[in-house]
User: Fold this.
Amino acid sequence: MNILVAPDSFKGSLTADEAASAMVEGILAWNNQAVVRKVPLSDGGEGFVSALVKASRGELFPAVAADPLGRTVQVQYGWIEQSQTAIIDTASASGLTLVSPEERNPLAATSYGTGQLIAEALKRGSKTIVVGLGGSAVNDGGIGMAQALGFRFYDADGSPIPVGGNGWLNVSRIDASGVDPRLYACEIVCACDVENLLCGPAGASRVFGPQKGAGPEAVELLDRGLARLAAAIERDLGKDISRLPGGGAAGGLGAGFAAFCNAKLKKGIDLILDAVQFDDMLTASDLVLTGEGCTDEQTLHGKVVSGVARRAARYGKPVVCLSGSLAGDYGQLRDAGVAAFFSVLRRPVSPAEAMAGENAYPALVAATREVMHLAALNVR
Assistant:
């Protein structure tokens, strides 16, 4: 049997490469003669840079940037010399994993570090910048990112809005006169992992704010702040980003990149699947295994599992999803092409225990082995 292993990361637990390795180990424990191909994936969040650099035979370069709380962190970005293309992801400098649960506060978190990486790419001479949107700790609509590129923001009293803190909630005016001119000579493509709008019931704040530490009152403040930002952008920059699909990605960075950088938004998983020539791998496969940390109704909208399933369905290849947890109305994914879902948990445990790498890895190995025993019955 030829098996294609193509998972996302198990957020906060296993990288995509670690998850793929665990699945391969489980397959070989079932049958050490199985033919397995491993392709760790990303939809724009964690693992995006490494996946695209590997697929494009690029290089990784070190950089220094500010994390969501303004602390200096060492990060990496990708570079493809032939096309003068830089590859960046928001998870590197503005990621949720950079902030402990006790520190998470999207009212004050800034995307400034992501802007610093864009500036570094411009300095290197980028003709194209590909940005993975996902896994962020921020909800500032890209204000911090734009500040790093020379945009200035003011409140209703005309006072400048500083980097970091919750002053961005009161943005009233935008000044683009100090922006690096190289920004507008560069094509920027953003890979989105969601299709949510900037504001509203399905917007960045209400859907993803709680995951970043926002309580009910903070969620309302965040949503109103992004609405104020959208109004200022429309008035001062002449762009309506309020109804942009994907505008709510990475705490509104999707909308921010479109407004401040003239970026195009694309589905991150499709971009990655095309780059790794996933369709060619499918034609030689009998079974596809994918997975992620939590499979729920959001998985249907631009995530790795749904992207893999839709591609596999074109070729009539069965897909099995192994996830850390199954929640909500994940059953809609059957229509996208997922044949079966399995949680890797074998007994009731706390989230912290379940997500610990020393527990998650062997649990995924064991679950994969059992799935293969079941799949083999059908193949025979």
Q: What stands out?
A: The CA atoms of residues 21 and 38 lie 8 Å apart. The first strand starts at residue 2 and ends at 5. The domain at 48-269 is CATH 3.90.1510.10 (Glycerate kinase, domain 2). The chain has two domains: 2-41+278-379, 48-269.
